[in-house]
Structures are given as structure tokens and as C-alpha cells.
Amino acid sequence: MLERKSHLDLLAMVLLVVLCASWGLQQVAIKVASVAIPPFFQAGIRSLGATLLILIWMGLRRVPVLERDGSGWWGLLAGLLFGGEFLLIFLGLQYTSASRAVIFLYMAPFVVAIGAHLFIPGERLRVIQVVGLIAAFSGVLIIFGDALILPSKVMLTGDLMLIVAAIMWGATTVVIKASSLNQLAPSKTLLYQLSVSAVLILGVSWLANEPSVGALTPLVIGSLLFQMVWVSFVTYLTWFWLVRHYPAGRLSAFTFLTPIFGVLAGGLLLDEPLTLSLLLALICVGVGIYLVNRR
């Protein structure tokens, strides 16, 4: 029998911190790999590689791949949302700054909270949770708020793409939690998203006529493998296991840690500047997470 919990326990919180740290480090890996691998092709090839890994995993665990379980259309929708999110992120970054992109993208937890309130029984949004989400989001603003200047028309185009990407990111979690996908093995839920997004993103890469792949140094290959094996396979599989067992709104609050870990990883690995604002942001996010998950 599937055990569903109303609050996050220690195991869930530890896993979430590891996931957010991994996703923050992913930002560095993408930058490193983009020196030789075009962005769309990079995103598509990592989804394709992770699809093969999840198929092997399902085979070893004897999880049915083609079983008729009524999840096909929901799986297709989740995959399109997942792939569309990444496409809009990469496209939006061509028009707006990375700092602005982070601010707009991390509106996604609000989408999850509202969607859970409306469509997921037992996950109604309380005032204290709204306050917690705002507190956590303020941590993101502390680090990246300087980028919020009056946008040009070009920048506004990118901002709108990132806002839609955030809505798609949040909607993906709500669709999975509120539909029959929540009854599936996490591996099959992930298979839907990886396979659909691989076809979608690689197709766009081909249509966009991206430049050819450059010199594949060990560092570039390692960065791509990190994204493919650890991020797209291990951490996403863990995330969908968490989504299946724990409240979506409480989980999504932890994702505000990701940009903070991204800044920290950039400072430690790419010599990007680190300031005291990082500590203040971490405090705000920590307070926000506590309020969202407070009993």
C-alpha cells in the first residue's frame, strides 16, 4: 500500500537539500558544457541519455513500460510541459539576463502552491504558507534583485518566456500529483517526461540549425554526464518519488534553495563573486521553508 504523508520528515528534507544542491551545481555544468555543445542539443541529448538509463532501471526492477494504465495522455501532457519549460528557459536566456531569469523562474513554487490548493485534496493553502513562500522568494530577490531594472522590449520578451516556463514547471508538478500519474511508479512518470522532452528538444535543435558540437574535452564530457546520469536520472527520479509520497506545496518551497546553491557553486568553481547577501538570502529561504512546513 502506498504511504502518503501530510508533512515532510527528516528523510525528505535531507533528500531535498541534496537535490537542490545538485540542481544548483547543474547550472555550472551547463555553462561548462555549453563551450562545446549547443544549448538545445545539450538539453536534448541529456534527456535522451537519461531515457535510456530509466529504461534499463525499469527493466531491472521489472516495471512495465507499455502497460495499459490510463496514464498515456497525462504522461504526454507532463512530458510536453517538461520539455516546453526547458525550451523556453533556453530561448528566454537569449533575450534577458540570467539574473532576471532566476527571479521569474522561481515563481514556480507559487504556481505549485495555488495548483495544489485548487486541484489536490488535502493540500489547501494556508496564510502562514503564503507568508513562508514570500519570505523564501525574498531570498532570491536579495541575491538577484539588482537585475530588476526597467526592461527593454527585447528583455521583456525573454522575461515573458521565463514566466511561462515557471508556470509550466509548476503545472508539471500539479499535473503529476493530481492525475493518475501519481499512482504510477516514479520511474514511469519520469520516463514520460524524459522521452517526450528528448524528442521535442532535439527536434527544435535540428530546426534551429544549431552549430556543430565542438571539442569534447574530458571536462565537457564530465559535465554532460553529470547532467545526464546524476541530475536527469538520479535526482529527477528521487524528486518524483518525493512528489508521490509528500505534499507538493511543501516540497516546492525547498526549491528556493537551488539558486542559492547555484550562486555558491559559481563562486567556488567559477570564481564568481560571493557577498554577504548570500547569507542573508539563505536565512530568508530557511525561514520561508520553515513557515511553509510548520505544522
TrEMBL record:
Gene Ontology CC terms: plasma membrane
Signal peptide: none
Subcellular location: Cell membrane
InterPro entries xref list: AA-Vitamin_Transporters (IPR050638), EamA_dom (IPR000620), EmrE-like (IPR037185)
Membrane topology: Multi-pass membrane protein
Transmembrane segments: 40-60, 72-95, 101-120, 127-148, 160-178, 190-208, 220-242, 251-270, 276-293
UniProt keyword terms in alphabetical order: Cell membrane, Membrane, Transmembrane, Transmembrane helix
Residue ranges annotated for the EamA domain, each copy included: 11-144, 157-293
Presence of keyword Hydrolase: no
This protein's name: DMT family transporter
Main localization category: membrane
